[in-house]
Amino acid sequence: MKKEYTELRKLVAKSRNIVITTHLIPDGDAIGSELAVYSYLKARKKSVNIINHSFTPDNLIFLDPEKLISVFLKEKEKNEKLIKKADIIFILDTNEFSRTKSMEQYIRNSKAKKVCIDHHLGTQKNSYDIIISDTNYPATSQILYEYLTGESKKYITPFVATALYAGIMTDTGSFRYPRTDAKTFLICADLIKRGADPVYVYDRTYSNIAPGKVKLLSRFISSLSFHFDGSVAIGRVTQKDFSDYRSDVQDVEGFSTFLMNIKNVKAGFVMVELRDTIKMSFRSKGDISINEFAKLFGGGGHKNAAGATVPKISLNELENEIVKRYRVFRSKHKIIS
Ligand SMILES: [Mn+2]
C-alpha cells in the first residue's frame, strides 16, 4: 500500500477542507479511525469535520470528549454544505457509500476526492480516488497506525494512541480474533508507550453494559436453538424485545460472538428483526467459510464473520430456512461437526 500512502500524502498536502465519515452504527474501529485521522489533519492545519449518520454509541463517547463528531441529520443544512465544499471525503472502516445511509447521495454528488481506508472485502474500485484497503489487517486503525507513523511518529499523540488502541482492541475482540498477530501486539505496545491506557480503554468500552442490554441478552439466550449435534446455535432478537427493554440494534453487538463461546458451537447465527428487514449475523470457527453461506442470503463478509439483510418474514420461517440451507451447505463443504 506504499504507493497509495504517498498518493494520499500528496492529496492531503494540496487540500484544505476535509470531511471524515464512517459506516452506520459505528464501532470502536470506526470511531477510533475517524478521531485519529481528524487529529492528524488538524496537526496539518486543515479544516476538518467528522460527520456520521449515526450517533456515537454510549460506550465510545469517552474517545470524543470534545464532541468533535456530529450527526448528519442533526444539522443537515450545515453538514450538507460541508460535504459539498469538501476537497477530500474520507470514508473509513467501510467501502460502501450506502453504509453512510442518510449521507450517501450527498457524498456521491460531492466533487471531493473520495478516499477509502478500510479492511473489508468487496471494494468498488471505481467509486474512489484513493483506496487504502487490505483485508489482512484486523482493523482500519492498524492501517492508520502504519500510515501515520510512516509520515512521523509525532502524529501519535496520547489522544491518537488512545483512539487507535481502542480501534484495534475492539476489532480484534480484545486480541483474540483471527488476523491478530505479532504485529498487532507490537503496534499496541507502541500505542501504550505513547499514551493509550489499556485498563482505562477496556473498562470504558466494555465494563459499561446498560441494564437494558443485559435484559435483551437474557431474552436472546432464552431464544437459542441448537442444531447438528450442538455445532450450530441460532438466536433471535425481535422488535418486541427492543421495545420491552428500551434498547435498539446497537445493543445486539457482541451477541454473535457470545454464541461462539458456547462449547462445541462451530457456527452461530443471529437474526435481528428490524422495522422492515431482518439483519442476520453469521459466525464460524476454523475452516468453515461462513461468508460463502451468507451469500445464499445475498450477503457476504469475511471467512469467519459475515452478514446479510433479508426482507421481513417470520423468524420461525427464516430459522427453518437457515437450518435447511445449512444442511446442504454442510454436506457440500464436507463439514463434519
Ligand atoms: Mn473495522
Task: Summarize the structure in words.
- The protein is of the alpha/beta class and 337 residues long.
- The protein has 2 domains: 205 residues, inorganic pyrophosphatase (n-terminal core), CATH 3.90.1640.10; 122 residues, Diaminopimelate Epimerase, Chain A, domain 1 (Roll), CATH 3.10.310.
- 41% of the residues lie in helices and 19% in strands.
- It contains 13 helices and 12 strands.
- A 6-stranded parallel beta sheet has the order 3-2-1-4-5-6, with helices on both faces. A 6-stranded mixed beta sheet has the order 7-8-9-10-12-11, sandwiched between helices.
- Helix 2 links the parallel strand 1 and strand 2.
- It is globular, with a radius of gyration of 20 Å.
- It starts with a helix and ends in a 5-residue tail after the last helix.
- Manganese (II) ion binds next to loops.
What brief labels describe this structure?
binds manganese (II) ion; six-stranded parallel β-sheet; 12 strands; 2 domains; globular; alpha/beta; 337 residues; Diaminopimelate Epimerase, Chain A, domain 1; 41% helix; six-stranded mixed β-sheet
The number of domains is 2
Nearest-angstrom radius of gyration? Answer: 20 Å
| Spatial order of strands in the largest sheet | 3-2-1-4-5-6
Number of helices: 13
**Could you spell the SSE succession in H and E letters?**
HEHEEHEHEEHHHHHEEHHEEHEEH
* Uncertain parts: none
CATH topology of the largest domain: inorganic pyrophosphatase (n-terminal core)
N-to-C CA distance: 39 Å
CATH architecture of the largest domain: Alpha-Beta Complex
Taking the sheet with the most strands, its summary is: 6 strands, parallel
- Ligands and ions found: manganese (II) ion
Assign a percent range to the helix content: 40-55%
Overall average pLDDT: 96
Structural class: alpha/beta
CATH superfamily of the largest domain: inorganic pyrophosphatase (n-terminal core)
Task: Work out the number of β strands.
Answer: 12
Share of residues in strands? 15-25%
Q: What global shape is seen?
A: globular
